[in-house]
Design goal:
By secondary structure, this protein is largely without helices or strands. It contains one helix and five strands. Helix content is 15%, strand content 11%. The chain starts with a helix and ends with a strand.
């Protein structure tokens, strides 16, 4: 009986100590780091692989520099740009994709867009 009393007293003391402790909220921080250095820009969804030439229209470039998409987008809030989703793996594209750090080809193919999106990858309208 003495052992049971000791265990019960220990449980009661532990419960009292836990109840008296201040409650803290977990702090979660997510860092996405720098955008991928891709010659023609990167897809607007994770894992943000490099997009091939001809995927993004000229609206996504400022002075030849990609303005970003997804979490790295730094264009105007009302931005809409054209993409050619035939070059998107989520739409069945199985062709070559550039790698991070590759340099653009000397001559890019002529752009033919078929979908309009905002800077966050949301479809804005069909063409």
């Amino acid at each position: 009986m003495r052992g049971f009393t000791t265990v019960a007293l220990a449980v009661a003391m532990g419960a009292a100590a836990t109840a008296g402790a201040p409650r803290t909220e977990a702090q979660v921080s997510v860092s996405i780091g720098a955008p991928p250095a891709c010659p023609y820009g990167y897809f607007d969804y994770p894992p943000y692989s490099c997009a091939p030439a001809g995927y993004y229209g000229p609206q996504y470039f400022n002075g030849g520099v990609f303005i970003g998409v997804g979490p790295w987008f730094h264009g105007p809030a009302d931005f809409h740009g054209t993409v050619n989703n035939h070059f998107d793996p989520q739409h069945g594209y199985k062709g070559p994709l550039p790698k991070v750090g590759d340099h653009p080809a000397a001559k890019a193919p002529k752009f033919k867009g078929n979908e309009e999106r905002d800077g966050r990858g949301h479809v804005a309208g069909k063409r």
